[in-house]
Description:
single chain; mainly beta; two-stranded antiparallel sheet
Amino acid sequence: MAAHGRIRCPRCSWQPRKHDRWQCSCLHIWNTFDTRGVCPACHRQWLDTQCLRCQEWSKHEAWYAADG
């Protein structure tokens, strides 16, 4: 069960959990979906996000599934 509801990889449909983490180029580690892709340390806006399962990159906004 995903902690983030309708957030999923647009390529493989993997759903991140609350404890999953991504690393910014500034080396800060956090859950990118907690801040909609903005690093809380350096404030970089990540436009693309890499899936931790399939390793493919997709537009960050494409991870937010539309209702319906």
